[in-house]
Amino acid sequence: MTLFLTALIAGLAVGSVYGLIALSYTVVFNSTAIFNVAQGDLMMAGVLVSYFCLDRWHLPQILTLVVILAVVVAISLLEERVAVRPFVSKPVVGLGWFIATLAFSLVIETVASIIYGQNPVVPIPGAFGSGTIVVAGVHVATKFILAFVTMIVVMVALEVFYKRSWLGTAMRGVAEDREVAALRGIDALRISRLAFVIAGVVTGLAAFVVAPIVSADVTVGLTYGLKGFIALAAGGFGSLRGCVIGGLLLGVAEQMFDLYISSNYEILAGLIVVLIVLAVRPSGLFGTRAVREV
Amino acid sequence: MNDHLIGRLGLDSRAWLRWAVPLVLIIVLYIVPQIGGSDSFRMGEYEEILSFLVIAVALNIAMGYGGQYILGITAVFAVGAYGAILAAKYHPHGVGLVAMCIIGGVVGAVGGMIIGLPALRVGGFYLALVSLFAALAIPTVAQQWGLVGADTGIPLYAVSGFAPEINGEELYIIVVSLVLLATLFSWALVHSRVGHRFVALHTSQQLASSIGIRAYRTQLLAILISSVMAGIAGGIYVYSQQFFAPGSSSVQFAVLLLAGMTIGGMGTIIGPLIGSVIILGINQFFTSFQQYNGIAFGILLLLFAVFLPNGLMARITVLSERLGIRPRAPSLTSGPSASPADTATEPTAATAATAVTAVTATAAVRPAAQLPDWPPVLGAGDSSPLVVDGARRTFGGVTAVDDMHLTITRGQIHGLIGSNGSGKTTLLNLISRFYSLDAGQIMIGSTRLDNQPPHAVARAGIARTFQSPKLMLRETALENVIPAVELRVRCTGPESVLRLPRGIRVNRQARDEALEILEQLGLRHVINQQAAALPHGTRRMVEMARAIALRPSFVLLDEPAAGLSPVELEMVANVCQNLARSGVGVLLIEHNVPMVLSIADTVTCLHQGKRLFQGTPAELRADTSVASVFLGIDEPLEASS
Amino acid sequence: MTTGEPLLVVSDLHAGYGSLEAVAGISFQVNEAETVSLIGRNGAGKTTSLLAIAGLRYGRFPGSVKLAGLEVSRASSRQIVDAGLAHVPEGHRIFRSLTVEENLRLGAYTRRRSGRKAAAATMERVFELFPILRTYATRSAGFLSGGEQQMVAIGQALMAEPRVLMLDEPTSGLAPIVIRTIYDAIGQLREQGLAILVVEQSVPRALANSSRCYVMERGRIVISGDSPVLAEDEHVFAIVRGTEEVPSAAPAS
Fold first, then answer.
1. Residue numbers of C between 217 and 236 with CB closer than 8 Å to B
2. Among B118, B137, B309, beta carbon nearest to A267
3. Would you state the pLDDT for residue C225?
4. A103–B69: do the CB atoms touch at under 8 Å?
5. For residues B634, B639, C1 and C3, what is the CA-based torsion angle, rounded to 10 degrees?
6. In angstroms, what is the C-alpha Rg of chain A?
7. CATH 3.40.50.300: which residues of chain B?
8. Measured between alpha carbons, how far is A117 from A119 in angstroms, rounded to an integer?
């Protein structure tokens, strides 16, 4: 039973990371109707920063968080300017945005591996140390709890933002009809940039909480990106709650697969999850919107 | 080429370059080993690139033409390759190149179907996701799996008993030939009835359904064909390299492939090939800077995606038009009624001045003095009318159509009028089966239509047009009408693709019939012009030609008069009357009330989803209650509006 | 009805798409408390003109647009909204995935610094103008009928408290009762002092609901004058219908 619980908790923790990535996707998507392929690599870049701050330079955790957010947001803004803006200002035809964001992720990955060099994958200290808390008779690592709580907080914050704030409502409007938004005085360009800033913050937070869980590894960007996307697809495009549920579902499925079937082929868990969910509920569990026609 | 041939083919003296360049390239391809070195290592490299090209051709068929985004087709390649190499490992004596290709193709097909089937249920974008994930997962799984050699892979060269019968230069020539064969096949496919279906579906599912194309089946076919080709590429690869490991088909590979497609330009036959060669060349060039090549690639890809989204082929086409090698097609128009949104494709050439003259030259749709009959072929077995009985449809609380009764009699024109929101277009979409009924039935005789898929409606003999003409913009007017004829003039896919005798005959017949209808509608002068270059009114007429080409029993016209000049309006009215005279039942949805009243036999007026009036035009004119509710007291029925 | 000062003055305006010029130098003005109509065939350049005035330009073209004396021909659409002009494009375009309330609120986006109370007060006035919207306030705008969506679109534009309102074919495809409602509302707005420019497809409707009228053809204004006078002018009908004959009772066919 404890094995099951341990796996469940680990699944919820890793799933929270997937959920955070999925939330980042949703923020960008809700405002530009495109999907940012580089989101996973952005997170990985944040993890790298975390490694440098904590393992190499021994900065305090709070400062590390700030640095991570700054770096990830900066790269996000660069990406918006270079790889996204050209595609969002005109009606979308074809794969252009996909290729552009994919190209950007390639660059991030290469730069990251150059910087990180041949260093082995090393663990990164967690925000509250490596302590554990006892929950329901099981020892739960604080880093797991931090990941889960962060995801919930971010989701709630985003929900409030979209429903209640001027900016949030404007973001939803801009995604639908940029011309009408412009006629009402809403600067669509600023809104897109802001979406990337917000997504950058969410991804930066994801990097901060996932670093102690997975350690520094520059090759995982695409994998996390794809898994975040599976979380999004399973949960349903356009739904914040869907991101959370999808992410948790994927994380737990992976851990269960590890436990009961085989840890070598864990990656198949993701494939199975997405195929099953799509077979049963094509629009995802909470799905509302369609991606721009690819 | 002698002048006679040039004349017959309609080429001018510089156009022979169009044929000469590819010919030269092909010759160069064959003699590469003489130029670049023919040691076995080099040959292996060449053959690796060539296998890659086959995958590019496969992806182009599925994605460039069919619109199926199997981004992770490298997963299918890997699966095919593993299948072939395993077969060779356990039966080294019995398995040669042909066997490997066949096994690769079969295993690849299975892999492609596993990925494709569930993703298709959901929608194209999920195919991209799932296939990309598979491209990631397959190498990861293979790394752990002993059967396929885990991380080290399977070294076929080390298997005793395996001695490839073909090698060296012979193998090279055969591989090149296989690549050319694949390219030829893709050309033949694209210009066959199968290819027409792909492009129609890629353009719009609604368009495809309206000419009887089965969406699901067609998508599956696109995925299947490309999977088989990718699997065969796996067989070729394994035979020539005699080795396969997880690293042979990484996600990196998928990215390279995608990069090649982007740079070369999808949707042309040669584009992906050129792009792939360039990308692979760059990849080779950068191996010494292995670390940094990701940055270079990324930037290159980014620049192309932003500045040359249609790839190099599009630029080359523009260039060859400017140099007179290719006939110049009129492009960007802003005709009297075209909005900028209509001109969806990149202009191929032309300044504004040329565009304007092009518009005036093509805008005049010459009315046919006497239109020939178009007796129904599809659905002609029955003589029953099309009956809508008690139809109801709500959308989230709003009842768009309520308790609708309507009969379209063969040989008569039934006008349907009403303001926006009155349910006209919803009703049309219900008949076409783009929406399903909440209640009621739609039937022809005793055959119910409302429980059948959209493509079945067309096959039952019901053609339709759309409020905003849906055409395959990159195809010519003629190519837009041919697929409709192909619904009736049948042969099997393989016969058409492989140009078997019956296939050639049917291909030509379809083309001739399409041409005939376009001529009858006075559109002869635009048959070879890209649909994107046609002004709005002409596009409407081409769409009508497509509907007529089905030789349907019923034609549903969705506001055909919108944005037309008086001359074009007359043509539409003539066509409607001629259809009726030929025994076709016409449903004419229109805002232009005077036009409807002048040609309709029956008029139905809708208001807020319900039937407000049904009767003859004379009765409508006399009915003042309709006038007051619908048309407004101050606006007489005959006024222009 | 006395009209006030000229709030919108357009002088030799050119506009188009890239290198294609669709508007070849038009000049007109709209005064306070006045409704002016702009009519012409499809493709005459009416929509392009209004979009250009509102700040949505697709290319650099010469010309002058003054709002209450302020030159705005090079201003961004945001600045133009701030200067007091609101444009309702054709096709009752609103944000369908948002509720009616959210749509209206977004109309006041440029005034969000004034706070929620101010926006609520403006929204109240919109509801008085179009009472049916009050009942649909929390409904998703995509589920409304075409006419109701048009009311949302107009209301949304009004939320920025403009002094000049432009409407591009606000009643095309709508039932007569709805057309009546919308023109009644436009009339009320005019009485409140707005300068209103309406593009209309239907010539009788345009002339019946405006005091002055401009006729556009191929990017230029070819006829202008008081609406009652133009209503008697057969050339107006001929130009708009694209024929040179006076229209008979039945269409040519």
1. none
2. B137
3. 93
4. no
5. 150
6. 19
7. 386-631
8. 6
Report the half-sphere exposure of B233 (CA within 13 A, side-chain side): 30
CA distance B429 to chain A (A): 21
Choose among A166, A172, A179: nearest Cβ to C98: A172
pLDDT digits (tens, 9 = 90+) for A151-168: 999 999 999 999 888 899
Query: How far B501 CA lies from chain A's nearest CA (Å)?
Result: 37
- Total domains in chain A come to 1
Cα–Cα dist A285/A273, whole Å: 12
A137 burial level (CB within 10 Å; 0-12, 13-18, 19+):
exposed
Q: C-chain residues within 8 Å CB-CB of B630? A: 175-176
Q: Are strands B398-408 and C212-217 parallel, antiparallel or unpaired?
A: unpaired
What's the pTM? 0.82
The superfamily (CATH) of domain B386-631 is P-loop containing nucleotide triphosphate hydrolases (3.40.50.300)
Average pLDDT per block of 10 residues along chain A, 294 residues long: 84 93 91 87 92 87 93 96 83 74 90 81 73 74 89 95 90 87 91 93 93 78 88 85 93 91 82 81 67 36
Please state, in angstroms and rounded to a whole number, the distance separating the CA atoms of residues B471 and B203: 8
The CATH H-level (homologous superfamily) assignment of domain C1-84+163-172+200-246 is P-loop containing nucleotide triphosphate hydrolases (3.40.50.300)
Interface check for B241 against chain C (CB to CB < 8 A): the answer is no
Distance from CA of A27 to the nearest CA of C (A): 16
Token pair in block for residue B467: 């409020």
Residues A67-88 have pLDDT tens digits of: 999 999 999 999 999 998 888 7
Q: Do C253 and B569 touch (CB under 8 A)?
A: yes
- A-C contacts (CB, under 8 Å): 70
Which residue in B602, B597, B598, B574 sits closest to B587, CA to CA? B602
Round to whole Å and give the CA distance between A16 and A252: 10
Tell me which residue in C54, C89, C106 faces A169 most closely, judged by beta carbons.
Answer: C106
Which among B398, B638, B639 has the least Cβ separation from residue C145?
B398
**Dist. CA B556–CA B589, nearest whole Å:** 8
CATH class held by domain B32-318:
mainly alpha
Q: For residues B150 and B140, what is the distance between their CA atoms, to the nearest angstrom?
A: 9
Residue B42 tokens, joined: 């080099």
Percentages helix, strand, coil for chain C, rounded to the nearest 5? 40, 25, 35
